[in-house]
């Protein structure tokens, strides 16, 4: 197999973690005799500093020409402290999602038994959890019209959805549910929001096409509570952009750390794969970042974009074996972890490579 992969490190720890996602892809290509070629591009704060644009035209052109994209992280504290900034790193991420038609964000909450104690939740609540989130990615309040009045006393963000946007991600989620435990929970706020009423109506219609899938509807506030109360009740979760953003970050506590969670943003063309953690500028360049989410994002790329299930499983198994051997980065270590077993970004990446057979 020949594939062109674009690496966009982005900001902060993005450069460090994508290094190991790329090395894992190179190792898989070598072991399974696939020809993976790599290119690199800039986006986010790094791109603003270099060009004044969070998504330069050259990056977008490379993205459209690639078979898949491995992304690192985006953001900088400079913009967090200046909400009035007109040009922001996140604009690059939103634009590339729109330009590539990436309307579905898949976030598997994959729980490794070795990390049951890394979560703030009780192990007996967590054990056996396996959730796949489908978050709609190109609609909702993030893309709606934004306004602020001249005297700066009022602001608004329009939350909106088209029927087709709900239909296409719902079908992807139902298709996935058929390959898992045939259970789907659609999360909305239909008791208050008109967009959620449309969302629920459309999901109910699509559900009739999948009579073998048990469909449940849940309000966002209840879903947020149930996710930490009894995460095993969920299989596939389908939800809108804003709600999905919040729920999947909450779900990072199930896995023990954001440094363990991968994601895939897909549509009908080039896939975009990234860890869900942020740019973490406070630890950037210190060899402290957890590279496992980026490595697991590479596994998702192999599976979803390239259809290489065996190769993807090889990567996931290598991560599992690394954890079983007791190796940890600081974010997933606990009081019982031996100091000699706590590794930096580079050392953890090297351990995973050792376990790739």
Layout of helices and strands, plus pairs?
Blueprint: E1 2-10, H1 14-32, E2 35-40, H2 45-51, H3 57-65, E3 68-73, H4 77-80, H5 89-100, E4 104-110, H6 123-126, E5 130-136, E6 146-148, E7 155-157, H7 163-179, E8 183-188, H8 194-207, E9 214-219, H9 220-229, E10 236-239, H10 241-255, E11 262-266, E12 271-275, H11 292-305, H12 309-324, E13 328-329, E14 342-343, H13 345-355
Parallel strand pairs: 1-2, 1-3, 3-12, 5-10, 8-9, 8-10, 13-14
Antiparallel strand pairs: 4-5, 4-11, 6-7, 11-12
Description of the molecule:
This protein is an alpha/beta fold and 357 residues long. The protein has 13 helices and 14 strands. The protein has a ten-stranded mixed β-sheet, sandwiched between helices. A two-stranded antiparallel ribbon has the order 6-7. It has a two-stranded parallel ribbon with strand order 13-14. α1 crosses α11 and α9 runs parallel beside α10. It is globular and about 55 Å long. The protein starts with a strand and ends with a helix.
What is the beta-strand fraction? 15-25%
Label the structural class: alpha/beta
Using DSSP, what is the number of strands? Answer: 14
Shape: globular
N to C succession of SSEs: EHEHHEHHEHEEEHEHEHEHEEHHEEH
| N-to-C span | 19 Å
**Number of helices, where a helix is a run of at least 4 consecutive DSSP H or I residues:** 13
| Overall pLDDT score | 95
- Proportion of residues in helical segments: 40-55%
Q: For the largest sheet, list the strands in their spatial order.
A: 2-1-3-12-11-4-5-10-8-9
Ranges with pLDDT <50 over ≥5 residues? none
| Largest sheet entry | 10 strands, mixed
Q: Tell me the radius of gyration.
A: 20 Å
């Amino acid at each position: 197999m020949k594939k062109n992969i674009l690496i966009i490190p982005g900001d902060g720890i993005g450069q460090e973690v994508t290094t190991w996602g790329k090395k894992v892809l190179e190792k898989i290509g070598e072991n399974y005799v696939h020809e993976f070629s790599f290119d690199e591009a800039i986006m986010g704060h790094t791109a603003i500093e270099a060009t004044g644009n969070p998504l330069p035209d050259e990056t977008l052109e490379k993205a459209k020409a690639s078979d898949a994209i491995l992304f690192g992280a985006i953001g900088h504290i400079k913009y967090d402290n200046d909400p009035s900034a007109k040009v922001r790193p996140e604009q690059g991420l939103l634009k590339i999602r729109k330009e590539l038609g990436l309307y579905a964000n898949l976030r598997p909450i994959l729980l490794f038994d070795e990390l049951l104690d890394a979560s703030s939740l009780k192990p007996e609540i967590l054990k056996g959890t396996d959730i796949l989130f489908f978050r709609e990615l190109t609609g909702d309040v993030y893309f709606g019209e934004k306004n602020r009045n001249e005297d700066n006393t009022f602001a608004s963000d329009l939350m909106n959805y088209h029927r087709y946007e709900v239909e296409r991600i719902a079908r992807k989620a139902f298709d996935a549910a058929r390959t898992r435990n045939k259970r789907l929970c659609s999360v909305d706020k239909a008791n208050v929001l008109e967009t959620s009423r449309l969302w629920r109506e459309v999901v109910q219609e699509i559900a009739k096409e999948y009579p073998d899938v048990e469909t449940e509807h849940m309000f966002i506030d209840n879903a947020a509570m149930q996710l930490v109360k009894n995460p095993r009740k969920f299989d596939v979760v389908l939800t809108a952009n804003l709600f999905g953003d919040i729920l999947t970050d909450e779900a990072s506590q199930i896995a023990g750390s954001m440094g363990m969670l991968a994601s895939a943003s897909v549509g009908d063309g080039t896939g975009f794969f990234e860890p869900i953690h942020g740019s973490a500028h406070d630890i950037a360049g210190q060899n402290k970042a957890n590279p496992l989410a980026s490595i697991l994002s590479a596994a998702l790329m192999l599976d979803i974009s390239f259809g290489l299930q065996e190769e993807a499983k090889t990567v996931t198994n290598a991560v599992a074996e690394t954890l079983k051997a007791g190796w940890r980065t600081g974010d997933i270590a606990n009081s019982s972890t031996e100091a000699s077993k706590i590794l930096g970004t580079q050392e953890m990446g090297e351990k995973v490579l050792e376990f790739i057979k």
